[in-house]
Amino acid sequence: MKPKATPTMVDPEQQMPLQDMPITQHLIILRQHLIKIIGLLIVLFFCLLPFANQSYQWLSEPLRAQLPVSSSMIATDVTATFMAPFKLNFFMALMIAMPFILYQLWAFVKPALYQREKNLALPLLLGSIGMFYAGIAFAYFIALPSVLHFFISVSPDTVAPMTDINSYLSFCLKLFLVFGMTFEIPILTLILILIGVVSTDQLVDKRKFIIVSCFFIAMFVTPPDPLSMIMLAIPMWLLFETGLFFGKLIENKKIPHA
Questions:
Q1: What is the pTM assigned to this prediction?
Q2: Given this model, what pLDDT does residue 5 score?
Q3: Cα 199 to Cα 105: distance, rounded to the nearest angstrom
Q4: Which residues of the chain have pLDDT under 70?
Q5: CA separation for the pair 113, 230 (Å, rounded)
Q6: Which residues, at least 6 apart from 63, have a Cβ–Cβ distance to it below 8 Å?
Q7: Beta-sheet strands, E only, within 78-221
Q8: What is the pLDDT of residues 106-119, one digit of tens each?
Q9: Could you name the domain of life of the organism this protein comes from (predicted)?
Q10: What is the C-alpha to C-alpha distance for residues 21 and 198, in angstroms, rounded to an integer?
């Protein structure tokens, strides 16, 4: 039996086999994709800039709904009233552009992939985008109001809670990123199974250690309260189980039936 020939991969823009391209040519192509990404971010940033204050009002709604009538948000720095909406505006531009950013990265690595890898990579790419947005939505609509309610409810009666707008923004962005990355666990689990790093049987054997690790990680990346830890650790565990379930389905399809 003749060995399977390695396909000659050609970059569609340069019409040149990838193995014959110098490293400088790869960097030029990468720069082209990065220029497109930066260009879109700049356009989105300036398009969203007139709505920066309204965006911050939307972000602060969960906190303002929990504050007592006599309390309000404050700015402890002269530039905070400008910088906080400015930072949020850039974050929103980045989130809106995320599918385009991932597509540009996909377009860069696509010529170097085999057809089977392309067929697997595209669904995983689309799934990772959807799961990242789902994690941010979960953080904003479920986790954030619950955590804020907990912190405000345990504050002493003699203390009027007044949160600095920059501190609140940093807290929210950290929470969004943590939950966004957490919701990538099923995708990561599937990738590890597909490339053969682990099998579903190995993951099942290590399940109890993985569950403990979920709570251990959540303890360090969330605010120092038990509610935040539980609201992150339990989704991490359930998301791992989701990835494991689909991993089993994929492995079963690979097993030939008698």
A1: 0.81
A2: 45
A3: 28
A4: 1-21, 254-258
A5: 40
A6: 73, 148, 163, 168
A7: none
A8: 888 877 777 777 77
A9: Bacteria
A10: 34
